[in-house]
Amino acid sequence: MADVKALLDGYRRFYGRHFTRRDPLFDQLATRGQFPKTLIIACSDSRVDPAIILDADPGDIFVVRNVANLVPPFETNSGHHGTSAAIEFAVRNLNVKHIIVFGHSACAGIGALLHGAPHDGEDSFIGRWMHIADEAKEHTLHVCGTADHPDARRVCEEQAVLTSLKNLQTFPWLKARMEEGNLKLHGWHFELTTGTLCTWKEEEGAFTPIPAEL
Ligand SMILES: [Zn+2]
Asked: What is the signed CA dihedral for 159, 164, 167, 172, rounded to 10 degrees?
């Protein structure tokens, strides 16, 4: 696993590839700005960087990462709404055409939701943050009977993606763009052990694998 020295070596390789001889892509991004068409809401988990998994270039995707790739409901209280602010910028300023909620297997945030956060008390944030997905937990317990069921984690991860898709639609300016046909929502789930990417199919009511071969 990379320590800081290894990361700085990585930066030097990146610099060599893109800035020793000026890469036209970076010239364009620096001078013309960013025009990503897609916002991805992914987990902070170090194993599931969407830019790496989707082989995306700088400028391709606008990314928000937080614990368990959750979207809170639209709220106008005095809290610090970091995720909502990033969604607002992507939708209202960058005019993204797609929003992907990008869940994944073995998500520790979902584990905390099902089995309890590692810390509790006033100075801990994870448990309170994961309350956003309480509905997903309830669904999971209903379907699986117990949080210890072998399928519980997967069911809850998928359901939390759907909760986030639902919460996205509580943002009035976002919903308006969907109704105008200018914005589409997508729910994805990435399986770490097999590399399988599943997408939510509304008509089938299920997450189904996309073909992985080119
Ligand atoms: Zn996660």
From this structure: -140
